[in-house]
Amino acid sequence: MLRAAGLRVTGARLAALDALAGGGHLSADEVVTEVRERLGAVSTQAGYDVLRALAAAGLARRVEPAGSPARYEARAGDNHHHVVCRSCGAIADVDCAVGGAPCLEPAAHDGFVIDEAEVTYWGLCPACQAPQSVPSRRTEVSA
Ligand SMILES: [Zn+2]
Ligand SMILES: [Zn+2]
Ligand SMILES: [Zn+2]
């Protein structure tokens, strides 16, 4: 993958790709932690540089929902969107109903050539929808 994208193959890049291949949306620090577990000492800056290179080459996607730190994922190159939990910050993928970017047509665009609409859905994840304390169930007593 790295060679096909025109990147030199390095241990840190391979380890970062492996960390992302596990799925999900990882913070840069989470990726750097996994890279360190494999390679030992890797500076935070070096880890961030690896992620930047992977994102620039289209091998990773950077997601930055308002108010939370950037996350990285291996699912790059499609126009999927994200749903973010307002309560705990959990992120899940949402397939684009249209498929290609930009999937929303503006009513007017002032002559701009538009190539992307940034769509983020906000709501509550299943865990945060659950009642905070489950009321104890009353035992039915038949008289
Ligand atoms: Zn939540
Ligand atoms: Zn995603
Ligand atoms: Zn869409």
Give the structure's gist in a few sentences.
By secondary structure, the chain is of the alpha+beta class. The chain contains four helices and six strands.
Q: What is the average of the pLDDT values?
A: 90
N-to-C SSE series? HEHHEEEEEH
Cross-sheet strand order for the largest sheet: 1-3-2
Q: Find the structural class using helix and strand composition.
A: alpha+beta
Name the helicity range: 25-40%
End-to-end separation: 71 Å
Radius of gyration: 20 Å
Portion in strands: 5-15%
Largest sheet, strands/sense/barrel: 3 strands, antiparallel
Number of helices: 4
Low-confidence stretches: none
Principal-axis shape equals globular
Bound molecules: zinc ion
What would you note in describing this structure?
Helix 1 crosses helix 2 and helix 2 crosses helix 3. The protein is globular and about 50 Å long. 15% of the residues are buried. It is of the alpha+beta class. The model has no long low-confidence stretch (mean pLDDT 90). The longest helix has 13 residues, at 44-56. The strands form 2 sheets. The chain has a 3-stranded antiparallel sheet. Strands 5-4-6 form a 3-stranded mixed sheet, with no helix packed on it. The protein contains 4 helices and 6 strands; from the N terminus they run H-E-H-H-E-E-E-E-E-H. The structure holds zinc ion (3 copies). The site of one zinc ion has 8 residues, from helix 4.
